[in-house]
Design goal:
There is one protein chain. The longest helix is centred in the middle third of the chain and has 18 residues, at 187-204. By secondary structure, the protein is an alpha/beta fold. The protein has 12 helices and 11 strands. A hairpin with a 2-residue loop joins strand 4 and strand 5 (75-76). It has a domain at 6-81 and 217-321: Rossmann fold (3-Layer(aba) Sandwich), CATH 3.40.50. The strands form 2 sheets. Strands 6-7-8-3-9-10-11 form a 7-stranded mixed beta sheet, sandwiched between helices.
Length: 322
């Protein structure tokens, strides 16, 4: 078997605050195999944004890496020089952000921005323009020559997101990080973007780390899924295993809150009672204990480890069942 494109081991990150260190990530382990799409799901505040910021080394100034490694193609990104890391971004690691209106420059044409993205290429202007036209066509934008002359505000949200995807794939990266790229789109456009992204992934053969709140998007697009809660990975496995047989109580409750699973009309949507724990003053034992209706006595004493082979979960209930 080939080595994973991305291999994160025991990654722990905290933020310095006036109240004390805020433990944003704790002992996170995950792998992104070559040619696979890995999804990450979890509530706001679970650590998704901190995780991807660590991968591309764009953490906030008050962030501190306590321990761990982020290995990309055999290199620990946390120990690369700034120049080496800057050379990786855009070429070997690309990113599609949540809101293309904030990631695209509003005062530059689409053509100028797609040309600038190729600044490391030795191709001439005509070749770069041809490459831009080709990429816009590949992401499903009609009349690409006209679109190159337009500004971002001339395009719809779906078209802007397609442009962002085209720019991210311009250098044919080994790893594409997509940070909730469909959140601002309506359901129809969301489906179109998902299918187009899946086609492009097969075409380019890149690996994708896909972050989303939308469970249906993860189920449709991804090969494997990682569930995060309050800075920890609580469950991981194939999409089929996790969605059909969720083992962690948090995953179970998260799936129950999916509107697509509601069979009967109702005025009230299901919610997970309680709130995230204080990450400055972490409780002992299981991080999900206060919101779990199945908690055991040992849940308040011992922190559970991820257990299992292909399908892993961090829950003492699994020990009790075995």
């Amino acid at each position: 078997m080939s080595l994973p494109v991305l291999n994160i081991q025991d990654l722990s990150i905290h933020y310095q605050t006036e109240q004390g260190p805020l433990q944003a990530l704790r002992d996170v382990n995950l792998q992104v195999p070559e040619g696979k799409i890995i999804g990450i799901i979890g509530e706001s505040g679970c650590g998704k944004s901190t995780l991807i910021s660590a991968i591309i080394r764009l953490l906030a100034p008050n962030a501190r890496i306590g321990r761990g490694s982020v290995n990309f193609k055999g290199r620990d990104l946390l120990r690369l020089s700034r120049d080496h890391m800057r050379a990786l971004r855009g070429d070997e690691i690309s990113m599609v952000f949540q809101d293309p209106m904030t990631s695209l420059n509003p005062v530059l044409t689409i053509g100028r921005q797609m040309y600038d993205v190729q600044h490391r290429s030795a191709a001439n202007r005509a070749e770069k323009t041809a490459r831009s036209l080709q990429m816009l066509d590949r992401v499903g934008i009609s009349d690409p020559a006209t679109q190159l002359q337009r500004y971002p505000h001339h395009l719809s949200g779906g078209m802007r997101q397609r442009v962002a995807i085209a720019m991210a794939l311009m250098a044919e990266p080994d790893l594409l990080i997509a940070d909730e790229p469909t959140t601002a789109l309506d359901a129809t456009l969301e489906v179109q973007i998902i299918h187009r992204l899946k086609e492009l992934q097969r075409e380019f053969g890149c690996s994708i780390l896909f972050i989303s709140h939308h469970l249906s998007v993860i189920a449709e697009l991804c090969d494997e899924v990682i569930v995060m809660y309050a800075g920890e990975v609580v469950e991981s496995g194939s999409v089929r295993d996790v969605f059909i047989d969720p083992r962690h109580p948090y995953t179970q409750k998260l799936l129950e809150c999916d509107p697509a699973r509601i069979a009967q009309r109702t005025r009230e949507l299901p919610v997970i009672e309680g709130s995230l724990p204080n990450l400055v003053d972490l409780p002992g034992g299981c991080i999900f204990r206060e919101r779990c209706s199945h908690r055991l006595a040992r849940c308040g004493e011992d922190r559970p480890d991820l257990s299992g082979n292909q399908h892993q979960a961090a829950c003492h209930l699994l020990d009790a069942e075995s």
